[in-house]
Amino acid sequence: MSSLTSGIGSGWFGSGKAADAGSVDQDQLLAAAKTETGSLSGFGDVAYGCPRFQVWARDGYVTMYEPGHVGDGLAVMHRGEITKTARECQIEPGRVTVKYGFSGRVLLGQKGRTGRVTLPVSVFVTDAKRQKIATDKARITVDVALDNPISYFSVVRSVTFQIPEGSRPGEYEVYVGFDRSVPGAG
Fold first, then answer.
1. Rounded CA gap, 172 and 169, in Å?
2. Which 8-state DSSP code applies to residue 67?
3. Taking a C-beta distance cutoff of 8 angstroms, is the pair 86, 6 a contact?
């Protein structure tokens, strides 16, 4: 059984129903990030039996500050935001594979510099008891410039995890969020 859902606007990705064809696509996520910044809520329950994929509370954005100035609004170097998500599930006996994608943007702050910006992201899966059963780390890398202070990103990856006999894939959840444990993050 395979299903596809998303938090991307209306239409193919955000219709509120599982799509019959297609897959999570990095280009479509990138295009959605560039055209719309709508809410991430309201999409998690639309695919029957598929684990929900959502942004971890408060970690859908990260602000990077100059060293020693975390929290100082005048020391913002750049800000990353996850604005869209999508997922597709492949459910087999005892095993679930979730192909997930997320997109967003990185904004240059007043103390930011032109060049490459890299932000760490964490993805994890929880079971029905909200215990982490799988984790993954990724890095978002974009180029920003004074004449182009907003850069967009999209990431598509997969996670596979085992489920015990008698449990349902819909009891599991997949989360994404920026890793705030790096120096300068706030």
1. 6
2. T
3. yes
Low-confidence ranges of the chain (pLDDT < 70): 1-23, 36-48
Domain edges within the chain: 2-178
How is residue 103 written in tokens?
Answer: 């997109």
pTM of the model: 0.77
Give CA separation, 88 vs 2, 56, 68, 75, in Å: 7, 18, 41, 39
State the Cα angle at 87 between 34 and 24, rounded to 5°: 60
Q: Is 28 exposed, middle or buried (0-12, 13-18, 19+ CB in 10 A)?
A: buried
Q: What are phi and psi of 31, to 5 degrees?
A: -60, -40
**Do residues 153 and 104 lie in contact, with contact meaning Cβ atoms separated by under 8 Å?**
yes
pLDDT for 23: 67
CA distance 125 to 52: 10
Q: What is the pLDDT of residues 24-62, one digit of tens each?
A: 777 887 787 777 544 333 334 445 678 999 999 889 999
- Determine the longest span between alpha carbons in the chain, in angstroms: 56
| Residue 17 in tokens | 């129903």
Instruction: Give the Cα separation of 101 and 159 in Å (integer).
Output: 11
Q: Give every CB contact of residue 30 below 8 A, 6+ residues apart in sequence.
A: 103, 152, 153, 154
Locate 164 and state its tokens.
Answer: 């015990």
